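Bumping my old thread because nobody answered last time. Still need a sequence for this structure:
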């Protein structure tokens, strides 16, 4: 599969003819809207920066939209969504915004997207269900989501083979990405896109990969 970053929390995964998008940016968002076709669109937070499902109805593709907790299956892709909290776009100082963490099984790998997560601990149900993570997308920007330090700690706890930081490009606090990378002096690599096979992921051990938009 091939993973590309489109700013904020928006990532596109392509596997053959299948296209999956996490948190597509809408025209009403604070970031430039996306414009491509997707078969499956997952929305973690119902906010214009993350819910532009109309923008990925393009090129003859009409996405199957998932925007909340539950179990789903579409186009051979299995999805589990878990209810969590966010402060992104919520009333200041309150955990009253709904966020969904998604675990997606695609191409023989488990991909977990934490969305605009603000709670540094996942629920017991989520921890029980999510195991052996190949790719983890973790928000690092603060400003309503995990701080760089919280993101680093949670990533270590979840033990993914690959961690991809998000919520640093076009949103989040200044230099949040640098702060996250400096936690524990982690080594990392930076790429324009990530092409990944199951055997490649199996060889990784807590790798951090920054995908530039």
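Sorry it took so long. Here it is:
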């Amino acid at each position: 599969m091939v993973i590309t970053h489109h700013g904020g929390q928006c990532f596109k995964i392509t596997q053959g003819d299948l296209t999956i998008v996490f948190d597509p940016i809408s025209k009403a968002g604070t970031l430039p809207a996306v414009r491509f076709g997707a078969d499956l669109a997952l929305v973690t937070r119902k906010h214009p920066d993350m819910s532009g499902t109309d923008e990925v109805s393009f090129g003859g593709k009409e996405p199957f939209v998932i925007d909340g907790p539950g179990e789903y299956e579409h186009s051979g892709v299995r999805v589990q969504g878990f209810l969590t909290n966010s402060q992104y776009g919520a009333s200041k100082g309150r955990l009253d915004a709904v966020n969904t963490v998604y675990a997606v099984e695609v191409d023989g790998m488990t991909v977990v997207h934490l969305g605009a997560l603000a709670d540094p601990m996942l629920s017991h149900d989520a921890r029980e269900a999510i195991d052996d993570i190949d790719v983890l997308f973790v928000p690092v920007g603060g400003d309503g989501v995990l701080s760089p330090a919280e993101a680093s700690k949670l990533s270590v706890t979840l033990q993914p083979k690959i961690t991809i930081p998000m919520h640093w490009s076009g949103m989040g606090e200044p230099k949040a990405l640098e702060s996250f990378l400096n936690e524990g002096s982690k080594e990392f690599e930076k790429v324009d896109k990530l092409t990944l096979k199951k055997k490649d992921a199996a060889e990784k051990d807590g790798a951090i990969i920054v995908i530039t938009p």
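The longest strand covers residues 77-86. Let me know if any region looks off to you.
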